[in-house]
Amino acid sequence: MSSLVIRPATSHDAPEIAAIYDHHARHGTATFEFEGYATNIWGAKIADIQQCGGLFLVGAVGGKVAGFAYVTQFRDRPAYAHTCEDSIYIAPESIGQGVGSQLLAALIAAARAARFEQMLAVVGGAEPASIALHKKFGFVERGRMKDVGRKFGRTLDTVYLQLAL
Questions:
Q1: Using one digit for the tens of pLDDT, what is the confidence trace for 76-132?
Q2: pLDDT at position 2, please?
Q3: Which of 28, 38, 40, 60 could form a cystine bridge with 24, CB 3.0-4.6 A?
């Protein structure tokens, strides 16, 4: 997708981000939520992540958000200050068009620039597409928690992947 513009998220992106996440919450297993968050919660989350030194990016085509990605410190304890966790969600109409790859590449570069040393991906539902995307960028599977979630009448695993930055 050559016309994808990757930039920092702003509060103006919150409605589109909320719609993308809500779609995945209601129809997928990448998140163990059953419905998305309100727009104002996403606006606050964008500001909070950026204020705490995290990175929140959107990929937009023609001004419309095609996907979003962010990293936050893996856990809020001081010993984890150099380890981040990524999250990536793509608008349903943009899946399979390279948005995830471009966002993850930009997120990895930004995390390195922010001096993170390790990036973790916690893949809910052991989503094959998400695992494949991360492995494409050198992430290595480090663990699998079996049967930890239930959604759509299925028992789901969570997979942990890691990339040394």
A1: 899 999 999 999 999 999 999 999 999 999 999 999 999 999 999 999 999 999 999
A2: 57
A3: 28
SS3 content of the chain, % helix, strand, coil (to 5): 35, 35, 30
Rounded Cα–Cα distance for residues 39 and 62 (Å): 21
Contact yes or no for 94/110 (Cβ under 8 A): no
Distance, CA of 148 to CA of 155 (rounded, Å): 7
Q: What is the pLDDT of residue 38?
A: 87
Q: Is 150 left (phi over 0), alpha (psi -120 to 50) or beta?
A: beta
Residue whose entry in the numeric block shows the structure tokens 């030194």: 53
> Can you name the residues that pair with 89 across neighbouring β-strands?
68
Distance of CA 144 to the CA centre of its chain: 18
Structure tokens at 117: 């040393």
Percent with pLDDT over 90 in the chain: 84
Report helix, strand or coil for 164.
strand
Torsion angle, CA of 11/14/17/19, rounded to 10 degrees? -170
> What is the C-alpha to C-alpha distance for residues 114 and 142, in angstroms, rounded to an integer?
24
